[in-house]
Amino acid sequence: MKSLLNLSSFLWLLLSGIPVPLVLVSARGSRVNAAACTKSFTSSPSCLQSRVPSHKRATSHTIPAAVVVPPVLRNLARGSILKCLADLTGGLPLEVWKSSVVLENIRHNNNHRESTHTSPKSSIAILRSLLRDQGLSTLWSGLTPRMIEGLFSGGVLLASKELIHVVLSDYVSPMVLNRVGMSLPPSTIGFLSGAGGGMAQALVMGPTSLVVTACVVASQKEDGEALSALRVAQGVVRERGIRGLYAGAPAVAVRQATNWASRQGFTEWVRPRIPLAGVTGELVAGCIGGVLSAWNTPFEVARIESQSKVMGENTSLGDDGESRSLFATMNDIIQERGVGGLYVGLIPRAAQACYQTLFLVCVPRLLS
């Protein structure tokens, strides 16, 4: 129990940016409560040493009183923890709901190609069907690959996004101000840093998003059995090689770049324009920015279409099973289902965008 409390304290200090205190252990095993020195560490780094009697000090076996975590490492840890928390508490259920809506629309279009009198189920109706037919647990389909993705993609996203933000605001913006007499607006810095972070995140999201989509596809087949993440990955590699894991990767890259450019940029743009301040203002700005970022839903629909096709879903994009370019896929969707087909699942998409913006844009800012 004590170890668990120590671990939770360490993670909280890591997230909050406070210098992480270490317990000072002497050669004779005496301990000092380092937490008492955390507040005074910046002014007196040696406070732990001063609390140990001189005859019990053992300089050769002394652990440093505290470790100041570098910003990049702190953001890597923050991003990983926050992304996993976001997915575990609501992000993954919203992802499964959104993917189910798009897949239902694909199936409906294929099964009623000649009919003009039927329409696919609404997003709310599909959510009710999922809960009624398969239970609440189906909303966490693909949890294992999602957590693995979160450990890497969340850290990569936040570390790269914050690093680009610092470079632009502290170096590029003053340089532009000196040369043209005009600094970069916060919203522009937000759009650029978000785009850079999203592109970096896409490097690790391709395979895991494919596996999650495959698990959703399998869970919705009437006679299909549940697939494990490992089994899905092994099947793709065996049939298509490593490249098969990156089916729909262009759509993932464009989606992530526009995702976080919009979420960060719109939040920065909205923040000074709402009559709220503090935590409430930050959360409201994040919600608005997240909802506005759902404009790029067509890229997400194209991604699901491409990846469901690779996993054997009978889509309308041909029978050869080969990956197609992002815009070719979007063009086929328009021809088959009209422009509205690109905005299927907009409601769960907007809800998911709002939720993730709160965790990975607002919370890091509040912690800083």
TrEMBL record:
The keyword ATP-binding does not apply. It comes from Cyclotella cryptica. One of its GO terms (cellular component) is membrane. Belongs to the mitochondrial carrier (TC 2.A.29) family. InterPro entries: MCP_dom_sf, MCP_transmembrane, Mito_Cit/Oxoglu_Carrier. It is found in: Membrane. The keyword Plastid does not apply. This is Mitochondrial carrier protein. It is a multi-pass membrane protein.
